[in-house]
Automatic annotation (TrEMBL):
Ranges annotated as spanning the membrane: none
Protein name: IclR family transcriptional regulator
Matches recorded under SUPFAM superfamilies: GAF domain-like, Winged helix' DNA-binding domain
PROSITE patterns given in the database record: HTH_ICLR (PS51077), ICLR_ED (PS51078)
UniProt keyword Protein transport present: no
GO molecular function list: DNA binding; DNA-binding transcription factor activity
Keyword Electron transport belongs to the record: no
Pfam families, alphabetized: HTH_IclR, IclR_C
Keywords: DNA-binding, Transcription, Transcription regulation
Domain IclR-ED: 71-252
A single BP term in Gene Ontology: negative regulation of DNA-templated transcription
Length: 267
């Protein structure tokens, strides 16, 4: 990353440091931030001091590391509350949960990945919940993959040319195999996963579109032993209908897709 002296470069560096705290470990030291972003320790220290003075970052003198501060939490809460995607999706999430009894989520695409905006937790005795606001990569899990399948081709090429980190043993890490799977996702309209982001979880997801194109994804997730191929095949049409209703409410247009069949389960 360039350490250019221009105002735009300085603003980007501050934003990159702040965004680094949205994924990975909850606390970071100067050396880790410097290494991750390719910035000098002096630059990182100045940025962290500035963010700390505004309560966006908090410093722990015992560990000598930093974590997100109360002002960042307030920003995140306000962003969730004011999210058009979340507001449009929430009533439909509750309806779908009541029919399927599994946890239903809405995710937004963000720079470098995606984040969960909200969820309606399933009503089984053993159920699943997700971490809101944390950034996850697009190549792991059904929500990320269905967003990646409908992303700009140049973005897809850049992601597949880079390192595909394995979050679990089931995370897709072969670029050619993942590219082929993205083609299938675009054709049938949904993505499925089994233990890709979290080892004991399974999910199925469908992209959501706004006036400008892809904005996020709606998914159904649960313990892996319940999210079987049969569950995915039976759930996909309902999830597609829900995603299309959210897309319509946002003023977007869903792409053409093949009709899901009972053979289109977990890849």
């Amino acid at each position: 990353m360039s350490e250019s002296s221009g105002g735009t470069g300085a603003t980007e560096r501050v934003a990159d440091v702040l965004l680094l705290f949205t994924y990975g470990p909850p606390t970071l030291g100067v050396s880790r931030v410097s290494r991750e972003l390719g910035l000098s320790k002096a630059v990182v220290h100045r940025i962290l001091q500035s963010l700390t003075s505004r309560n966006l970052i908090a410093y722990d003198p015992e560990s000598r590391e930093y974590r997100l501060g109360p002002a960042a939490a307030a920003l995140g809460s306000r962003a969730l509350r004011d999210s058009d995607l979340r507001a449009a999706a929430l009533p439909f999430l509750a309806e779908l949960r009541d029919r399927l009894h599994e946890t239903v989520t809405i995710s937004a695409k963000v720079h470098g990945g995606r984040v969960y905006l909200d969820q309606v937790v399933g009503n089984h005795e053993i159920t699943m919940s997700v971490e809101l606001g944390r950034r996850f990569p697009l190549h792991a899990g059904s929500s990320g993959k269905c967003m990646l399948a409908h992303s700009d081709p140049d973005e897809v090429d850049r992601l597949l040319a880079g390192e595909l980190t394995a979050l679990t043993p089931a995370t897709p890490t072969d670029p050619d195999a993942l590219r082929a799977e993205l083609d299938r996702i675009r054709e049938r309209g949904y993505a499925a996963s089994a233990g890709e982001r979290q080892g004991d979880a399974g999910s199925v997801a469908v992209p959501v579109f706004g006036p400008g194109g892809l904005v996020g994804a709606v998914s159904v997730c649960g313990p892996r032993f319940r999210v079987t191929e049969e569950f995915v095949a039976a759930t996909a049409p309902e999830l597609i209908e829900t995603a299309d209703r959210i897309t319509a409410r946002l003023g977007g247009t869903a792409p053409a897709r093949a009709v899901p069949t009972p053979t289109g389960g977990i890849p």
